[in-house]
Amino acid sequence: MELSVLLIKALIIVAVFGVTLLIATYSTYAERKVAAFIQDRVGPNRAGPMGLLQPLADAVKLFFKEEFVPANANKFLFIAGPSLAMLTACMSSAVIPFGNTLYINGEYIPVQAIEVNIGILYIFGVVALGVYGIMIGGWASNNKFSLLGAIRAASQNISYELAMGMSIIALLVLSGSLSLRVMAEQQGQDLFGISGMNWNIFYQPLGFLIFLVCAFAETNRVPFDLPECETELVGGYHTEYSSMGMGLYLFAEYVNIFVASAVMATLYFGGYNFPFMYDLGLPHNVVTILGTVVLFVKILLFIFFFMWVRWTLPRFRYDQLMNLGWKILIPLSILNVVLTAGAILLKDEFFK
Amino acid sequence: MTGNIFYFLTFLTLIAAVGVVVSKNPVYSVLFMILTFFALTGHYILLNAQFVAAVNFIVYMGAIMVLFLFVIMFLNMREDTEQHKPMLSKIAAAIAGGMLFVIIIAALKDVDTNVYHPAVFDSQIGLVENLGIVLFRDYLLPFELASILLLAAMAGAVMLGKREPGERNRF
């Protein structure tokens, strides 16, 4: 590898990391603006033009508050909890393909931090790791409400990971690869003569629906935010946290929403592909940059959807949540796997 | 470079494994165990066994250890309420552990370490595709038997957790 190629690679990695954090930061602002829009209010409008500096003000406020560690709390684990939550949240955006290849100096460079051929398994692993941050923080607080919140978060995440994995298996049967880049490339093929329109959502609508519900549960968002249910648990696992410990937990949630949106856009909504992408007659690099822009538009739409749901729907009851996960979503996802496999077998048998 | 990473990972694995045994607080033990699995995942990646690495990561670190932590957090164990075991059981445990150690050393003493032949070694054997082909072609029967075993265990767990007729919910 040449030095310039390495430099571009490093730039892409830094850019992916930076964009992840930037979008998560402005998600907090967008959340308040969307809430205000839905509730017919104005929302934050004091800090900067249209309140655009609000996230900065929030960060400064959180940094300057007192970092309070309750008596009898386990100090090391109390600090390690939010740090771990943030670390795992930031790790997962590394394997998402944010664009096609850039053609520079006779070499094709993928717009992606790292390409591994088990990309989707990597994301699942890191997401599974994310629950430790919540559990450790909740336990180390030495508070019953925190512990109950942490336990709820863990059992909810484990339950919904199963249905999520099953819905992905149908997709894997369809694409035959675990690499997110290969899956994104496959969705760039022709469908009814329109290039870049071969999106998985047309083949896997049920799988997408299951994945979407599970993504809400995995990120602990309404209507599945039982771990921080105020009426039952005060504040849930972060009851005892103040200052930046609290900030990291909340921020990790927004990073997780960004990653979940990016994964959904990549897996089901064509990734960086857009209709007629190869019929425009544009140079390769321009199409790649346009594709990246389109991907981010899709991601932002998903983030908006997360917020829309939060300010529209009420919360589930805990037994309803478990029933939905175990008795409805898992059988449905198994049915989806069987149907998909059967359809592929039929197609290979009769329509080839 | 790879050698250094190997030594670092081995060091981490051993330290974490000792930490599991030595820690007074069971929560720390579980956390050390997670660290051990993490280092083992690194070893699998060094061996280019990506699928095994990912499965170890997701199943052991992501699911099984979460359940461990779950149970131990519910136990509410504190250092001052921990019961000390009698001296006799400590001695018996030490002797039993030492015997196991001797057996392992005796078994590993004669292991042939020259199995690796660069000419016939396939570095791609650990990738998902190759592993799937091997599992579903050469070892189909053991693989299916293992899945039946897991299904039986799952059915057993459901039976044990099921509420008996007439039994009231205790919580």
What can you see in these coordinates?
The complex is a heterodimer of chains A (352) and B (171). Chain A is an all-alpha fold and 352 residues long. Chain A is 65% helix and 2% strand. Chain A has one domain (3-350). Chain A has a two-stranded antiparallel ribbon with strand order 1-2. Chain B is mostly helical and 171 residues long. Among the domains of chain B are: 1-76, Four Helix Bundle (Hemerythrin (Met), subunit A), CATH 1.20.120; 124-162, no CATH class. Helices cover 72% and strands 0% of the residues of chain B. The longest helix of chain B is centred in the middle third of the chain and has 26 residues, at 50-75. The model of chain B has no long low-confidence stretch (mean pLDDT 83). Chains A and B meet through helix 4 and helix 5 of A and helix 2 and helix 3 of B.
Describe what is shown at a glance.
The complex is a heterodimer of chains A (352) and B (171). Chain A has 352 residues and is an all-alpha fold.
Taking the sheet with the most strands of chain B, its summary is: none
- What spatial form of chain B do the alpha-carbon principal axes imply? extended
> What would you give as the CATH superfamily of the domain at 1-76 in chain B?
NADH-ubiquinone/plastoquinone oxidoreductase chain 6, subunit NuoJ
Largest beta sheet of chain A: what is the strand line-up?
Answer: 1-2
Mean pLDDT of chain A: 84
What is the succession of H and E elements of chain A? HHHEEHHHHHHHH
**Low-confidence sequence ranges of chain B:** none
The count of β-strands of chain A is: 2
Query: Largest sheet of chain A, if any?
Result: 2 strands, antiparallel
Task: Figure out the total of helices of chain A.
Answer: 11
Instruction: Say what the CATH topology of the domain at 1-76 in chain B is.
Output: Four Helix Bundle (Hemerythrin (Met), subunit A)
Number of strands of chain B: 0
N/C terminus separation of chain B = 56 Å
Oligomer: heterodimer
Strand content of chain B is under 5%
